[in-house]
Amino acid sequence: MQFKKEVLPLRERLILYAERLLENKGDAEDIIQDVFLKLWHMRDKLDEYVSVYALSVTMTKRLCLNRLKINQREQEDLNEFILIDENLSPDIQLEQKDNVAQVMRIIDQLPDLQQATLRMKHVDGLEIDEIAALTGSSPESIRMNLSRARKKVKEIFFKNDKQ
User: Fold this and answer.
1) Which numeric CATH code is attached to 84-162?
2) What is the model's pLDDT at position 32?
C-alpha cells in the first residue's frame, strides 16, 4: 500500500470532520496529526482493512470524543475553582461563567509556557518560586512570563468583548 496515495488525500476531509465535532480548528489539527501518526505506524497492515477511509474516520471520531471528554473534565475542574456569587441574579451568574469560559479559551491559545505558568499560578495556586522550580526557570522570568500572558489575555478578551 502506498501511504501517500491512500492516506494523505484524506487529510482535508478528516480535518473538516474533526472541526465539526470539536468546534476548534487547532484541536482538529492536533487530532488529525495523531490519526496520521497512528496510521503511519500501521502502514504495513492497512491493506488488511476494507476501507482506509472508514478506519481513519473511526479513529478521528474516537480521538475527538476523547478530547471532548478531557475538555469537559478540565472545565468541571476549573468550575470548582471559580467562585460565582450565588446572591447575584442568574443572568449575571451566567455572564460570569461565560466570561470565565472565554478567558480559558484565550489561555488555550497562548504559547505552552505561558499557559502552564498561568494555570500553575491561578488554578493550582502555586507561588512563583514553586513554578520556577518546576519549570527550571528563574522567578524573574516566571514573573515576566505571567505578566506577558496576563496582558495578552486582557488584550484578546477586551478586543473580543468590543466585537
Assistant:
1) 1.10.10.10
2) 92
